[in-house]
Specification:
Number of domains: 1
Number of strands: 0
Largest sheet: none
Number of helices: 7
Structural class: mainly alpha
Radius of gyration: 16 Å
Strand content: under 5%
Mean pLDDT: 87
Order of helices and strands: HHHHHHH
Low-confidence stretches: none
Distance between the termini: 50 Å
């Protein structure tokens, strides 16, 4: 059962990344309010990272490199959990996020300010 849970999460994550890479994505928040959300520019930033244009990625979204590393690490950890038939990474991740939600909110605020104040 653990392998099935990990495999499902792994497939959802890979599918989401493929969907974002192939489909044009528009920000609903920006469309409605006219201001950029904390995630605005993330798709363009990921595309820049895939082309090794790190400064362009940071300009598009300041959190792009940490989020890209986090997603890459998550894919690897889920794959390892699938091989070991364990379900440890996701519960540990949820515990970590629950304990550090204030830090994450501060990062989102910084990204929000950066996205709306950049020239």
């Amino acid at each position: 059962m653990n392998r099935l849970k990990n495999f499902a999460i792994f497939i959802i994550l890979i599918s989401f990344l493929c969907f974002v890479a192939l489909m044009p994505v528009t920000c609903l928040f920006k469309t409605v309010t006219g201001i950029s959300c904390p995630a605005c520019g993330m798709t363009r930033a990921f595309m820049s990272l895939l082309h090794f244009q790190f400064s362009e990625a940071v300009y598009q979204n300041i959190l792009s490199i940490p989020v890209f590393i986090f997603i890459f690490y998550t894919i690897i950890r889920l794959f390892i959990d699938i091989i070991k038939n364990q379900f440890t990474y996701v519960p540990n991740l949820l515990t970590f996020l629950g304990k550090h939600y204030v830090f994450i909110l501060i990062l989102l605020l910084i990204s929000f300010l950066f996205n709306n104040l950049k020239i």
